[in-house]
Structures are given as structure tokens and as C-alpha cells.
Amino acid sequence: MNVINDKLRVEDNKWIGTRTVRPDGADKVTGRATYAADNTMPGMIWGKVLRSPHAHARIRSIDTSKAEALPGVKAVVTAKDIVDFPLETSVMLGIQDMRWMCRNVMAREKALFHGHPVAAVAAINEEVAAAACALIAVDYEVLPHVIEIEDAIKPDAPILHDFAKFEGKPSNIAGTMTAKLGDVEVGFAEADIIVERTFRTRPIHQGYIEPQACTVSYSADGRATIWSSSQGQFMVRAMTSLLTGVPQSNIRAIPAEIGGGFGAKTIIYLEPVALLLSKKSGRPVKMVMTREEVMRATGPTSGSFSTVKIGAKKDGTFVAAKGDFYIQAGCLPGGPLRGPVGCSFAPYDIPNVLSVGYDVVSNRSKVAAYRAPGAPLGAYAAECVVDEIAEKLGMDRLELRLKNTAGPGTKAAYGATFGKVTFEETIEAIQNHEHYKAPLDRNPRPGVKRGRGVASGFWYNAGGESSAQVNITEDGNVVVTTGHPDVGGSRASIANVAAELLGVDHSRVSVLIGDTASIGYSNLTGGSRVTFASAMVVTQSAEKVIGQLKERAAKIWKIDPEAVNWDNGEATPAGPNAGQFPPLTLADLAAKATETGGPIGAGVQLNTTGADPGFATHVVDVEVDVDLGIVRVLRYTAAQDVGRALHPSYVEGQIQGGVVQGIGWALSEEYLYDKQGRLDNAGFLDYRMPVCSDVPMIEAVMLEIPNPKHPQGVRGVGEAPIVPPLAAISNAVYDALGKRFYALPMSPPKVLERLDEV
Amino acid sequence: MAKTHISTSINGEPVEFLADPGSSLLDVLRNTLGLTGTKEGCGTGDCGACSVTVDGRLVCSCLVLAVEAEGHEIGTIEGMAQGETLHPLQRKFLEMAALQCGICTPGVLISARALLEKNPNPTETEVRFGLAGNLCRCTGYDKIVRAVLETAAEMRETV
Ligand code: FES
Ligand code: FES
Domain 2Fe-2S ferredoxin-type, which positions (chain B) (predicted)? Predict the structure, then answer.
């Protein structure tokens, strides 16, 4: 590997680091790319889900006889058709507990939120399926419900699950997670200044534009084919297998193009239901969620209620940090505690840390992962407190951070001991940026105030299992197959890597995503891992292929393979001693493949490691209209260590997209519930994601400090950019108004309310 | 309820179909005619993924009844390229990486084309407001806006 690694000096790169056109691009701009809902099959029928009209209710019985009798109805399923995972025994698939997954896909003992699936129907068309749903009689015993964290943790709150105990008593706190370092009591005793604040955030949705959809065909021989869009076809296969009892070897999951996921498509909702409907009806079944179903019953990410306390010396040295993070799990356990507990204080070298997360269940849909799951919630609280400490100490906000940055040997409370980390570099990049140095006109017009804020963030990044196959076609071109759904242009990066290593023109490389039957196991597209891990397995596969190509040339020339070089897409003799032969191109060797040993190609399956953490520092300018309460982001600059940008445009795109999602989180997005525990804004009109006219250009400053543990130096990118914006914008609004906000979103009504407070 | 027979033109070709009175144009395009390039993100007129033109006017096809297509000229993403030649917007979107997942892209392209037809020399603000009806959750809009501005500049030069 080292030989190739040495050759990949940045200045020598022809394809890596260039802005090539993505391999899947033309189909996506012409409407030809097939997303989950675009697939059809001969004889296909339609599935629909019946959902609970109550936020919390015991299901006494379900009578499906009238629905089954309706002409055109082909199958009905309820929880009794789904494999049950009894509450006593945990069965894990990755980070998902199948006890909760089986109850999330279909309500079992109780309906736990308004919109919880209770039955599903397949019929000749959507209208008949909907009519049949209306004929299903469910006998509910309506129970008191609870929505907000602070209500759910009260002693007299309605309890969702009898099995959940906290401090020995039945509770809606279904679990905790702790990260501890040193002794915070000792640390705080040494502090000259302590700031402690409580923060609240609302649940928000991942907001992918493509609703969940699938088509499943179950054949008479017990084999099933699933077309769906997800962040992992192998996850789809495994989870569907567990929930239906069909062995994995009998399920082929084919990944459709995916129209956004941001974490939410790391679990499934429809596939097992559609499989069972297909099995019962003997017909392929298609299911497509409406936007309302997506909002009510998938995702969102957690709301939070956090208290963060940081103690510092007069000179700014942090001596202790404590965080209590109450995180919404939705109706079943499994909120993203690891995000706030591990990430909040990780950028800093603090000797005494106590970080505790509480997994709080309530009558909302079960949360799903969202970009750096949970980390923005913790960073919001921690980075706002850091801002206040800087202010109280009269220190520059970035200098205070620089003084405390984690470095080589720093022990993080979550367990890691850092090697080289690149947090400082992100701070310095902002300090030296023209944006940070530019003067700010604080009162440009009457009624308008401007402010500037900064914040930093940390994300773990991830390695994990990946597989790749690199094949040389008979005409001497290259086909690369990986096992990762491509959400944001990862095929473009892989094409650059393969072209570079094999020394061929980019246009001669195709990159495909294999289905579960055509490529080895590959873990989820998530955790900022795909480019890191797939570039690694593609590199190793390409190295094997180059080895084969040298052997083939050696055979033709009757010399030793060691005496063959592979350069610029052709084999040449390594030196004068190797002999005099005209070069053999990829096409020459492919043409002679049969006689020199057979097809040329190699695959690698690996559990990748070495994904070092990612750090980011952001600066933002905002403008507040004090009469209307509107906060506008005027300018935004985000600096991040990206290791090596294999395809800079898609790296910038990750940063820009993550930042704008953060802007929505900070300023406009929130889940609103009515008194009956029903989501009040289950659509894009009232659930307000940023539109084009809400935001400015987002400047992405990519620091390319190679990750030494990766063949191209890649570091995960996708998640860190959503970690700082919540605090950065909050700190900017404070800078503009002189009033701190301790809750998100800072939407116009809330800004006006706060401005009215004396 | 009985279906209605509709004669219309889609991307310049005559098309006939039968539609339920309650079906949306989006539904017929995708599920009856197999033109799945037009996407459904919401079905309520709030995301723009279903953008098409009717007689050159930009509409959300999820808010148009299929029967309203009678006698009109519908333009969808499938008609944007001329054979192998991409529309300048399509080409620029690829060159400038103005898409990530791509689900919003057909709608954004149809909107952007309608915008440039009306205003060949838009400012950044005009592009931002012109595309404000098209949600994109992936890109943060930066590269989309740049690609539209670049295309406009290029198209002005070539006229
Ligand atoms: S699907 Fe028509 S606007 Fe969203
Ligand atoms: S590129 Fe994914 S929604 Fe726009």
C-alpha cells in the first residue's frame, strides 16, 4: 500500500481532488434516476397503513374481517404477523434493539403515539386500500398521554412502559449514559468562575424530500426482493429478516437511489410490512408514505432539556464541566445519548468532566438518527456557556477556546485518548478569515441590529465494515462496485480514487452500488464513514488489480512480475535490466486476460479502522428585526478539517448542507403538539425548513490535513458541520441584542417575547 | 366515478389518458404515464419537487387536476434535454455539483428554467426568491444558486 500512498502526493494527483462530473449525474438531471417511489412491477398492488388516532391507548382487539371482505382487498396484516421480540430479552442489530423496532413498525400491546401503525392493507389500488383501512375496527382503551420531557419526568406522569425503571421506580427515564473524568466537585472548587445554564430544544425532522417508499415481491419459493431507498441495503435485509422470519439468504435488497436520509433512513418502517402483505397476497406490493405520515411517524430527532455548568480559572483555563442532558427518545427507548454525553466537552482539555444523559420516553414517534445524532444538542448548551465565560472573563471568544483545545494525549471523558487532533487549526482558520476580521455594522437601519457569533463542534466519525469489487471489463475499462447507498455524491469521490490509482481517464470508470446479492456486507451510509471506508476498500481492491495486471504483463513478457511497473494506465518494464518491451495498456491486458490467467478483478471486504474525529469552528453574522422578531443569517463561514477532499465540491456540499440544516434548527423548525398529543404541523407549510431565500451563500473552508490512517488521508465530513450552528447563531443573536436565548428555535414569536421581557 | 378522457401535449408530443376527476396531474404523470422524473415530496404544494410547466407557466403538478391538462401543453423534466444534448442548466448543475441526493433536482431545474425565461439576467436575490418554492434539504442552496447564475451568464453570452 505504501508505494501507492507515496505516489499520491497531492501535486501529482490527476483525478483526486478535482471536480469531476459525478457518474450518476446525467440520470439525476434528466429525471431518469429511479428513486424508491419510481419503481413499479407487473401485477403490483398497493399497501396502506392504518394509524392510531390516539396518542396513547391500549389495543384491546383488532377486527379486520370487514376490511378483508371488501372487494379488491388482497391482504391485511397486524402486529401478530410481525415477529415478536419479547420485552425480557434484548436482540440487537447494530445500535437498534429489535424489541423496540418490532413495536415501532407495528403497535403491539399499546399504540404509543398519534400515527403509530396498527394494521396495514394491500389492495388493487390506493383508494381501495384506504377504504379498507377505514373498515378495520380497533378497540382502544385510551390512556393519559405525555409529550414534553419536563412533564414525562414528573413523578405523577403517565408511564409508557412498565418495564422501564429509574432509581427502582417505574419511570419514563428508560436509560442513562455517563461519561466521567476526574472529579467535578474538586474541579469546581478550584474554579474562579462558574457558569451554569439550562437550555431547551424542540424535536425537529430530518426533512428529506423523498418520503419512505418500497416495493416488495415475495415469490412462491419463499424468496423476496425488496426495492427501497435506505442508508443501507444490508440493514434493510437484516431488519426485514428479523421482523418477518424470512432468512437473510432469501431476501435480496436492491437499493434505489435515495432522496435524502440524514440518518433517518438507517432504520425501516415499511419493508417488513410490505413483505408480509406480498406474502399473504401473492402479489408485489408497493407502499409510499405521504409527507404527513413521514412527519407524524418517522424520525424526528430528539428535543432536549439540558443543564451545562463549566468552571474556569481567571486566565480562562477550564477546570471542570458538568452536563445533564435529558433527551427525547420518542415512544420507545433509544435516544441519541452518545451525542451530547460524549461530544459536548470533547473539543476541550478539561481534567474533570461529568456528563450524564437521560433517555426520556413520551408519546411521540420514536426518534431516528439525524446528522451527528444528539451532538448538536449538547454543543448548543456547552458552546453557549463557553461564550458566556469568555464574556465574563473579558476574553476573546476564540482565544478562550484556543487556550483549552484538546491536543495529543488529551483524555476525552467518553474514553478516547486523542492522538493528533486538528481542532486548533479550525479555530485559527476562522481567526485568520476575512469574515472574522471584517467590521460589522451593528445598527445598519433603525429597528435592525446585527451581531456575530462563533462556536465549535466535535463528531466521532466512524469506520466499520465495507466491501468493494474492482473489475476490468473485457474492453479494458473499469467497473467499481461498493455496498453503500450514495446520498451525497460518494460515487464521484470513488470514481476519482479508482481513476487515479489505475491511471486511467475518469470517463473509463463506472461506479455502481451493489445489492445484497452482488456485493459483500457493507455497513450503513452514516456516521460520516462512507467516503472514508469505501475509499479504503476500493484502494485495496485496486492495488490487488494492479498486482494482477503486473503479473499478466510479466507473463506476456516472460519476466518477473517484480520487474513490471504500473504507471499511467499501462505496464512498462521496471528498468533496463527488465528488458525492452513496448508498454501494455489496460485494454491490451484485458484483451489477453483469458490466455494469461482469466478475468481481471479483485474485491476486498474489511472492517475499516482509523477514522479519527472531526472538528469544526464556525462564525456567523445575523441581523435581527426587532419589530418583527425575524432573525436573518447574513454571512456564514465554516472551517473544518476534512483530511483530504477527494471531490471538493461534494465535501463543500456536505458542509453547506449541514450548516443550513443547523440554521433551520436554530431559527425556524420545531414539532408542535396539540392538547390531544397530535402533531399540529405535519407538513412543509407549517414545519418551516429553510428555503432558498432564507439563507446566504455558505462559505466552506476545507482544511486538508491528511488523516495518516487513511490511504488518501480522508477524514469523515458529513456530520461535524451541523454541530456548531445552533450555538453560533445563538451567540450571534446575543451579540446583536444583548439578551441571551436559552431555547430554540429563535423564531419570530419567541424573539419578540424575549425582547418584551424586562 | 367514471374516468374522463383527456387529450393534451406533454413535452411537445400528443398524449391521451383517462383520469379520475380527483386525480392530480402529478399522479397521472407518475402512475399512469410512467413519467416518474417529476417527484412527489409533499403533495400539498409546499416543496416544488413536482414542478412542471403548463403552457410555459410554472406550477406544482400536485395542485393541478389531471383533467385540467385538456388542451394544454405540459412541460416536464423528461423534455428538458434535446436528445443527448442537455439543457445548459442541466449541464451546469452537473459541472457545479448543484445536487446531492438529486430528488429535488427535476423540480429545481424546471423552476430555474421558468425563472430564466422570464428574467435572463437575475441577481442572486432574484434567483433565491425565484427558487423559494423548491425545497432542497441537502445542498444548503449555495451551489444551486451559483449554477443558475452561471448558466444565466453563459446563456446571455451565447444569444
Ligand atoms: S409534491 Fe407538489 S409541491 Fe411538493
Ligand atoms: S439534492 Fe437532496 S433535496 Fe436537493
Answer: 4-80
Question: Domain range holding A646?
Answer: 416-451+612-758
Question: Does the global pTM surpass 0.90?
Answer: yes
Question: What is the number of domains present in chain A?
Answer: 2
Q: Which residues of A touch B92 (CB under 8 A)?
A: none
**B41 Cβ inside 6 Å of ligand 1:** yes
B141–chain A nearest CA distance, Å: 6
What is the DSSP secondary-structure string of A323-390?
EEEEEEEESSS---THHHHHHTTTTB--SEEEEEEEEEE-SSPPP---SSTTHHHHHHHHHHHHHHHH
Class in CATH terms, B88-158: mainly alpha
Q: Tell whether A604 and A616 lie within a shared domain.
A: no
CB A353 within 8 A of CB A322: yes
Residue A718 domain-assigned (yes or no): yes
Q: Answer yes or no: is A395 within a domain.
A: no
Chosen from B40, B137, B146 to mutate, greatest number of chain A CBs within 10 A:
B137
Residue A476 domain flag: yes
B4-79 shares its CATH topology with B88-158? no
pLDDT digits 0-9 by tens, B45-98? 999 999 999 999 999 999 999 999 999 999 999 999 999 999 999 999 999 999
User: Distance, CA A688 to ligand 2 centroid (Å)?
Assistant: 16
pLDDT tens-digit map of A244-293: 999 999 999 999 999 999 999 999 999 999 999 999 999 999 999 999 99
Residue B46: its chain A contacts at CB < 8 A?
Answer: 291, 683-685
Looking at all shown ligands, the one closest to residue B93's CA atom is 2
Report strand pairing: A304-312 vs A318-330. antiparallel
Q: How many angstroms is it from B46 CA to the middle of ligand 1?
A: 5
- CA gap A696, B98 in Å, rounded: 15
Global ipTM: 0.98
Cα of A442 vs centre of ligand 2, distance in Å, is 35
> Residue ranges per domain, chain B?
4-79, 88-158
